[in-house]
Amino acid sequence: MRFLSNYIENQRLHTTRLSFVLTMTAYALFSQTEIKLNLATAPLLLPNVGIEIPLADRKAVQLDVLGSFWDEMPLLDDAPLHITQTFLEYRWYQKPNREKWFIGPHIGFGMFTLQKPKSLILFDYYEETKASSGSIDDDEYQSGRVAFYGVTLGYKKGLSTSWALEAFIGAGLSQSWYKGYKGLERVDHLGEPEIRPFNGSGEVLMYRGGVMLVYKIPNFATKEKTDAN
Fold it and tell me: At 36, which CATH number?
């Protein structure tokens, strides 16, 4: 009996997984899925691509990734710049055809090796503590992991039945864990005499944005509409 019970439970689990895969496949086939390329980050050799799958007339889910695979960035005086970011976002649009203004809460995760850009920080709770430890030299940088919790605001403008442009900016809370370096030497960025395994920090900052070139993948409905016209 226990064997039969386990067998039935496994079959239910497989059925649930199959149902999820078939549901997502149906959304991709019978709704107008979009693929995107960020025109603002591409010239900086930071590819940022995404895919948006509609869930309803005004709702969609988007997954996008950004990556920099350069140990040093020639466009930024050979400063360390190694980034990977992944965001999962749920969007509400102003118009039923998923155009005009939209807002999207998101979560994200990334890895980095860089000197944290102060110009993008909107609020830093530990700013006074960091200031008391002294300024960061040009050859100092951080390497670690970061989690993001925030919101994206944007505007999408259709250019044709297949193409659109999307301007967006995202900000929120970032929580990072990192090791500090000065050249190749490990340092503690909070000025502690004993180097800890990891430093940690949390800021509210702008961490994503740009202009996406959007291609709307044709599906059965849009193909029939195009043929009829």
Answer: 2.40.160.20
